[in-house]
Design a protein that fits this description.
Structural class: mainly beta
Largest sheet: 6 strands, antiparallel
Distance between the termini: 17 Å
Order of helices and strands: EEEEEEH
Radius of gyration: 13 Å
Strand content: over 45%
Shape: globular
Length: 79
């Protein structure tokens, strides 16, 4: 089966490193100077909101990417 990708313009992001002993997410917020293009493998996408796209990341982490595209356009490409 051929892998499918989506092109997004992403900016700031939040990396989830896991959970503490209180079951609270351990996060790291990354602030960037400008948005940039990224090709994302659709199989890595866990969810999409109007602000963030959640994907899996290295070492069993998750990452919330802020994206610039219109939510309905992204939704249309994914369905």
């Amino acid at each position: 089966m051929k892998e499918k990708f989506i092109e997004l313009t992403v900016g700031n992001h939040i990396v989830v490193h896991g959970y503490d002993d209180q079951n609270k997410e351990i996060t790291e917020e990354i602030i960037v100077k400008k948005f940039s293009k990224k090709i994302v493998n659709i199989s890595r996408i866990k969810s999409v909101s109007e602000t963030y796209i959640l994907t899996d990341y290295i070492d069993d982490r998750w990452i919330y990417w802020e994206y610039k595209e219109d939510f309905n356009e992204v939704k249309k490409q994914l369905l």
